[in-house]
């Protein structure tokens, strides 16, 4: 059985809540702060594919996205998305969780995690 992988930022309050929930529910996990340890482009591509596209992986409601120049907000290729994420890692939705079965989800709510791990 694979372990749960959680990707996020160590100071992100939503990531902290997600990890606290996993700990409280006895779910072992490995956390990766992607600002300190960038996610490999091949892994990012798999995560985006599993979620149904780059638009699902990137938080386009974030202040980081809103502050981008208009021409940067229309990535056309996977390479464009990867370059944007490499430059602005905070664009990735938080947290990204890959459960033991390889299912990928973004964000956290107790209801959502309870349903995933039921």
Automatic annotation (TrEMBL):
Family: Belongs to the ArsC family.
NCBIfam families the UniProt entry points to: arsC_related
Protein name listed in UniProt: Arsenate reductase
Organism annotation: Pollutimonas thiosulfatoxidans
């Amino acid at each position: 059985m694979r372990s749960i992988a959680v990707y996020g930022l160590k100071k992100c309050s939503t990531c902290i809540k997600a990890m606290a929930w996993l700990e409280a529910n006895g779910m072992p996990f490995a956390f990766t702060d992607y600002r300190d340890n960038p996610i490999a482009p091949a892994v990012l591509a798999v995560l985006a594919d599993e979620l149904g596209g780059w638009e699902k992986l990137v938080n386009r409601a974030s202040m980081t996205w809103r502050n981008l120049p208009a021409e940067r907000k229309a990535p056309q290729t996977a390479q464009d998305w990867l370059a944007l994420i490499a430059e602005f890692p905070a664009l990735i939705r938080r947290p990204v969780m890959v459960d033991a079965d390889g299912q990928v989800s973004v964000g956290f709510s107790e209801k959502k995690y309870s349903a995933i791990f039921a």
